[in-house]
Every structure is written in C-alpha cells, then in structure tokens.
Amino acid sequence: MAHTATAPAPGNAETPHGTTRGSGVNFGRVLKSEWIKVTTVPSTVILLSCTLIVMVGLAALAAWGISTAQGSMAAMAEQDPQMAAQMEAQGGMDAAALTVPSSGFIFGQLLIASLAVVLIASEWATGMIRSTMVAVPKRIPALLAKNLVIAVIAFVIGTASAFISYFISQPILAVEDLDFAITTDGVLLSIINTGAALALIAVLAMSIGTLLRNTAGSIVTIIGFLFVLPILIVTLLSNLADWIPDAARFLPDAGATQMIAPEIADDAFNQWQGALVLGGWALVLLVISLIVTKQRDV
Amino acid sequence: MIEAVELSKRYGAKTAVDGISFSVKPGRVTGFLGPNGAGKSTTMRMIVGLDNPSGGDVRVNGKHYAQHSAPLREVGALLDAKAVHTKRSAYNHLRAMAATHGIPNSRVKEVIDMTGLGPVAKKRVGGFSLGMGQRLGIACALLGDPHTVILDEPVNGLDPEGVQWVRHLAKGLASEGRTVFLSSHLMSEMALTADHLIVIGRGRIIADAPISEILDGHGHSRARVRTDRPGELVRALAADGVSSQHLEPELLEITGADSRRIAEVALARQILIYELTPLQASLEDAYMQLTSDEVEYHSHTLTQTSDTAGSKEGK
C-alpha cells in the first residue's frame, strides 16, 4: 500500500499542492458533476423508462377510447338524425383526438416529480449533500445545475413521449377517420409543451424536495398540490364565492393543462399564459429553495 | 493554515462550540482531541462552511472556505464517511466530485489506488464496511491534492493495518508541508500521530500545545520496576510527587519519576533492578485529567464493583 499521499505534482515551489492542476469550480463543471450523479444511480433509469412507457401507453389507451366512442356515437347517429346533427355541429370527437399526444402528461408529471424529489431528497437521506456542498460551497450553482439537469431530462422525455404517442395513436384513430396531420394547428405546440410543462413540474418538485429534504413528505405535498387541491376547489369550494374558480386558474395544475392544450376555449388562458402560471410557481419555489439552502446548516 | 477566532455555534439553548480561537499550522499533524460531544465535528463542519458559525470567524489560507475558487484543491475534508449516495459506486462518486473542479479521471484512479479501494471501486457504496467507507472518504479528501487536510475520526472502523496506514498518511502529508488537522477521541492514537494537540471539552479549548508539553505538564510518568530491595528503593525515591505501589513482593509501580531518575537513584544506592518499564498510558492520564470536568456523558462505576476492585488491589 502506498504511504506517500500524492504523486508529486509538477509545479513551482511556491504553490506545491493543488493549484498546479487545472483550476476551480465553474458552472459547466458543476453541471457535468450533476449529470454524472443523475446517470449513475439506478432509480433514474428505472423512473425515466417508466415515464416513457406510461405516457405512451396512456396516449394509446386514450386514442382507443376516443376511437371507440366515435364508433358508437356514429352507430347511434345512424338511427337518430337529431343526434347526427348535434354531432355534426360539435365536430364529433375531432377535438378530443387532438389532445391524444399530450394525454400521458397527467401521469408523466407524477413520475417526473417523483424523480426530481428522489434526486435531491436522497442526497439528504444518504448524507451525500454534505459532499456536494463541500465541493461546491457556494451551494447555489450545485442546486441550479441539478434543476437544469432534471429540467432538460424532463423536457426530452416529455417531448419524445408526446411524439411517439402521436405516431402510435394515428393508426388507432384512423379506424374512425379521426387521424390528423402533425402540422394541424396547435398539435406541434402541444407536443413540445408537454415536454416544457414536465420540465417546469420537475423544477417545482425539486424545489419542494429541497425545502422539505424528505422523499415521502415531498411527494405527498406535490400530489396534494397538483392533484388534490384542484379537485377540492372544483368540487367543494367553487360555490362559496365567485372568485374561487377564477383564482383556481392560477394553480400550477391549471396552468399546465392550458399549456399543453392544442385548442383553447374562448375565455380560458392560452398556452403562453398557462406557461406563465406554471413557470411562475416553479420560479418562486426555486428562488425560495435557493435562499433557504444558502442559509441552512447542511 | 486554519485560523479560528472566537468561533461559536449554538443550537437553540445548547452551545456546541463556545468562542474558541486556535490556529492549525502547516508542516505538522495537529490533533483535535476531546470526548464525544465536545464540539470537534461541529468545529470542523464550520471550517468547511457546512454549518454557519453563530459567532466568530474561521478562515482557511486567509479566506472563508466558500470564497476559494477551487475549494477541493485548498482543503480536503473527511467529515462523515457515509456522506455518499448508497446506490452509487465509489468510482462514480469520486468521478462526480472530481468533475466539479475539472480534476481528471487519472487522478480519480490515483486516489483509488492510494487508498486501496481498487477491488471495490465499482461496487455500490451501500455495501461498504465502515472501514471501506473511511477509505473512500479519505480518497475524496485527497482528490484535489489539497494544501490542507481535515480528517474527522479517520481511524474509526479501520482495521489495525488501516490505522497504521492513516498514521503514515497523516505524517506523510505533514512532511510535504501540508496542514493536517485530525480529530479523535482516542488519545493513544493521537500520541502516535500528532505533533501538536488542541484539546477541546464542552465547546471550549482546554489545551493547545505541542504534545510533549501536554505530557510534561499534566501526565505523571509512571514506571514498573522489579527489584529485590523494593522498600529501600521507595525510601530512596521518596520526594514530592513520587508515589509507589507494591504490586507483588518484588514489583513496584512508581508514579511521578521517570525511568532515568529511577535508574540513577538505584545506581547511586547500588540497588539491583531487573526490570524497568516506562508505562505508556501517560497521555491518557493527561487527557483524563484535562477533560475530567468537561466530559458530557460520564459513566459511573457501580460502587460495589469499585469496592471489590479496590480490595483486590490492596491485597
């Protein structure tokens, strides 16, 4: 076993150690370090594969459901001319078909949020965070790099899932003549925004994970925030006052829904406004998590 | 060079570190000795900026740790052997740490070889023994080839071969002109490794001196002597601070006089001595004496047991 501490470093006598090799911390290097971290734990690969499979699978199911519904409605319309006229007016299931590529988002966001939480909270659970903060004692670059890495991964996975979903769903929809070109108004934007919304959800989730430092607590909080709170407001609270349903449009979940929508109702937020709502939540939570982490003992 | 000035840390009502000032100089091994809960780890965590001091200031090479542009090249720290993601391999952990400073993979392989981690480098850290975890922590501390090395309880969980290796490593690093700051609650380990000691108890510094000075000032030299005329030797040695105990008819334990003085006295009186053994536990004595009032968690010997032990000794 070697007893000498280090191989003799070349350099002048004034600075015999350390500074002779390369230089210090910069954001690109921290980013590379975070990338290595993400790709060297098995949970990342497992969760990302699950996300892709679940999102595409859900889209295929949605396409099948829409196609079947269209089929049974068409059968009814043959016997009932009044119904046929009504369907004609509404454009049948055409609008629903356009949402198929982004329909995996609802579960995709849960899996991506879990991954984001696991990535940061497991650092606290294992003590890894202390190694991270000793290597990057300014702390904020490390957290920003971690957020950027998960956001990029979420964007790529979300966009890829939506693209694959589009191509897989077309033959299923074509059975009832519901298939559509990718160049149809709003479709490409919806596909790309599925990835962008997942990226924002990932940042929101990682910020909550950073604040709570605990995997289970963070995931429960996120489910409450993204899934339970909107239901609660719509089913229980919306009749209490006029402003409540109006305010509910500013919840992150509502923002994400508008962001990925291929078509927008007249009085609803458009895609960009939806992105602002979701992005606003992600940004505020990110800033809070950075401030808290900067001051906290690790 | 590490310099702490009036450094304090309070957790609510509890004061973990109470306004300590010290400096750790390059070119020697400085031991940081104290009982459990004395504030050693908290102090080390403040040095590398993991904990914010409640008061005072600590700098490494003239700057706060976080102000260095290449902190891992300035300071290598082993604070907690298990500060590693359990599902990641040792090699990937070191690679991720190295990447933050653009430290090449060749250096990662170097520290793996240096710490003897080669056979387990590709295995998940979760399955590591405490000793392997310590070696990984030390490998991480050495990654940046730093001027200053901080090791918190580095020999914990190491086998005798590993303990000896850490001892050589610490001395080797100091001999290359680096600052080496080493904490332990094991005085015997410190006696073998450190050149200078900072003793801490209940968050306060009790002693800050070269190890020899601490021994002279507080330890009582003890020696075991076999002679055929014990009574005469005890009378001849009788002086202030010298006490003796008859262990066997011809075996004495003498406290307060070093071996050389005992030999001189015996020679002068023509008393035959057929064993003269200096007893090594003196730093332990010094340490116990220094920290007796400062230990946070005292263990109380059962009265009955100590009575029995006393009567056996007194036979």
Would you mind describing this structure in some detail?
The complex is a heterodimer of chains A (298) and B (315). Mean pLDDT of chain A is 87; it is low at 1-16. Chain A contains twelve helices and no strands. The two termini of chain A are 34 Å apart. Chain A has one domain. By secondary structure, chain A is mainly α. In chain A, helix 1 (27-39) crosses helix 7, helix 8 crosses helix 9 and helix 8 (187-212) packs antiparallel against helix 11. Chain B is an alpha/beta fold and 315 residues long. Chain B folds into two domains: 2-216, Rossmann fold (3-Layer(aba) Sandwich), CATH 3.40.50.300; 219-280, Alpha-Beta Plaits (2-Layer Sandwich), CATH 3.30.70.250. Helix content of chain B is 37%, strand content 26%. The termini of chain B are far apart. In chain B, a hairpin with a 2-residue loop joins strand 1 (2-11) and strand 2. The interface between A and B is large, with 46 and 57 residues.
Distinct helical segment count of chain A:
12
User: What is the CA-based Rg of chain A, rounded?
Assistant: 24 Å
Shape of chain B: elongated
Give the helix proportion of chain B (percent range).
25-40%
Q: Gyration radius of chain B, to the nearest Å?
A: 23 Å
Instruction: Describe the largest sheet of chain B.
Output: 6 strands, mixed
Report the CATH superfamily of the largest domain in chain B: P-loop containing nucleotide triphosphate hydrolases
Identify the most extensive interface between protein chains: A-B, 46 and 57 residues
Helical fraction of chain A equals over 70%
- What is the terminal-to-terminal distance of chain B? 54 Å
Structural class of chain A: mainly alpha
Task: Please specify the SSE layout and strand pairing.
The complex is a heterodimer of chains A (298) and B (315).
Chain A: H1 27-39, H2 42-79, H3 81-90, H4 94-98, H5 105-126, H6 128-135, H7 140-174, H8 187-212, H9 215-237, H10 243-248, H11 252-260, H12 271-295
Helix pairs in contact in A: 1-7, 2-3, 2-5, 2-7, 5-7, 5-8, 5-9, 7-8, 8-9, 8-11, 8-12, 11-12
Chain B: E1 2-11, E2 14-24, E3 29-33, H1 40-47, E4 55-60, H2 71-74, E5 75-78, H3 90-99, H4 105-114, H5 130-142, E6 148-152, H6 160-175, E7 179-184, H7 187-193, E8 196-201, E9 204-210, H8 211-218, E10 222-227, H9 230-237, E11 243-248, E12 251-255, H10 259-268, E13 273-278, H11 282-291, H12 303-313
Parallel strand pairs in B: 3-7, 3-8, 5-6, 6-7
Antiparallel strand pairs in B: 1-2, 1-4, 8-9, 10-12, 10-13, 11-12
Helix pairs in contact in B: 3-4, 4-5, 8-11
